[in-house]
């Protein structure tokens, strides 16, 4: 097992400690979330009673294969806890997510939860967001026009870099909802909240991968074990 895999397993096991019998859980998408699903599946097979909502078809398939009961968000209603990974995490627990192409459903499920906990290894911690290209889910109709507007808005918010559609095996990558993903190599984002607000004003933008003021805690695995980070208190 590689060191990265070991860190994912450690943080997944730590997140499992937050799960109580009878909970309704949101399951994230990506390799670290997959480690949590594997750990959760082992507990379910031992008798843990939970109901889960998946954020992607890949997550749903893994969960069902592990014996985890899956419900729709419509039937489950408010969730107790969502556990998901992130591509970048800053000191305020603002996130960039969407590397796995499921950012819209991840954001919907996180917002439907009483508690949203991020799990990651320490390589995902950053002083400022933006080194990881920002994913933005866009409507296929007029996508190139939307990409141009994203670039314009980015520059107005102090960001500049290539904005391009993510490629899949047979053309543009498609999300589970049938949308495209634009990956934006903006570099350092001076004001993530401002950029997020501006992006939502573009009609062709379905959702962006900036998760601001959403995470209640982050479990971070490193050489010295797993530590818990919480948003800094406002003064």
TrEMBL record:
<comment type="pathway">
    <text>Carbohydrate degradation; pentose phosphate pathway; D-ribose 5-phosphate from D-ribulose 5-phosphate (non-oxidative stage): step 1/1.</text>
</comment>
<dbReference type="InterPro" id="IPR004788">
    <property type="entry name" value="Ribose5P_isomerase_type_A"/>
</dbReference>
<feature type="active site" description="Proton acceptor">
    <location>
        <position position="106"/>
    </location>
</feature>
<dbReference type="GO" id="GO:0004751">
    <property type="term" value="F:ribose-5-phosphate isomerase activity"/>
</dbReference>
<feature type="binding site">
    <location>
        <begin position="84"/>
        <end position="87"/>
    </location>
    <ligand>
        <name>substrate</name>
    </ligand>
</feature>
<dbReference type="GO" id="GO:0009052">
    <property type="term" value="P:pentose-phosphate shunt, non-oxidative branch"/>
</dbReference>
<feature type="binding site">
    <location>
        <begin position="97"/>
        <end position="100"/>
    </location>
    <ligand>
        <name>substrate</name>
    </ligand>
</feature>
<keyword id="KW-0413">Isomerase</keyword>
<dbReference type="InterPro" id="IPR050262">
    <property type="entry name" value="Ribose-5P_isomerase"/>
</dbReference>
<dbReference type="InterPro" id="IPR037171">
    <property type="entry name" value="NagB/RpiA_transferase-like"/>
</dbReference>
<comment type="function">
    <text>Catalyzes the reversible conversion of ribose-5-phosphate to ribulose 5-phosphate.</text>
</comment>
<dbReference type="InterPro" id="IPR020672">
    <property type="entry name" value="Ribose5P_isomerase_typA_subgr"/>
</dbReference>
<protein>
    <recommendedName>
        <fullName>Ribose-5-phosphate isomerase A</fullName>
        <ecNumber>5.3.1.6</ecNumber>
    </recommendedName>
</protein>
<feature type="binding site">
    <location>
        <begin position="29"/>
        <end position="32"/>
    </location>
    <ligand>
        <name>substrate</name>
    </ligand>
</feature>
<comment type="subunit">
    <text>Homodimer.</text>
</comment>
<comment type="similarity">
    <text>Belongs to the ribose 5-phosphate isomerase family.</text>
</comment>
<dbReference type="Pfam" id="PF06026">
    <property type="entry name" value="Rib_5-P_isom_A"/>
</dbReference>
<feature type="binding site">
    <location>
        <position position="124"/>
    </location>
    <ligand>
        <name>substrate</name>
    </ligand>
</feature>
């Amino acid at each position: 097992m590689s060191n990265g895999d070991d860190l994912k397993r450690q943080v997944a096991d730590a997140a499992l400690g937050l799960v109580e019998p009878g909970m309704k859980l949101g399951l994230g998408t990506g390799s670290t979330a997959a480690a949590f699903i594997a750990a959760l599946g082992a507990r379910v097979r031992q008798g843990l009673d939970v109901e889960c909502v998946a954020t992607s078809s890949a997550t749903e398939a893994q969960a069902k294969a592990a014996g985890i009961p899956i419900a729709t968000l419509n039937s489950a209603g408010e969730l107790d806890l969502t556990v998901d990974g992130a591509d970048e995490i800053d000191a305020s627990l603002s996130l960039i997510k969407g590397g796995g192409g499921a950012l819209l459903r991840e954001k919907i499920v996180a917002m439907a939860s009483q508690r949203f906990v991020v799990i990651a290894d320490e390589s995902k911690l950053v002083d400022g967001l933006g080194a990881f290209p920002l994913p933005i889910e866009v409507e296929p109709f007029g996508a190139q026009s939307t990409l141009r507007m994203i670039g314009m808005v980015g520059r107005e918010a102090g960001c500049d870099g290539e904005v391009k559609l993510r490629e899949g095996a047979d053309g543009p990558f498609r999300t589970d909802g049938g949308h495209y993903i634009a990956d934006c190599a903006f570099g350092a984002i001076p004001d993530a909240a401002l950029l997020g607000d501006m992006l939502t004003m573009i009609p062709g933008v379905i959702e962006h991968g900036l998760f601001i003021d959403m995470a209640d805690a982050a479990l971070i695995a490193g050489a010295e074990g797993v530590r818990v980070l919480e948003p800094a208190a406002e003064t």
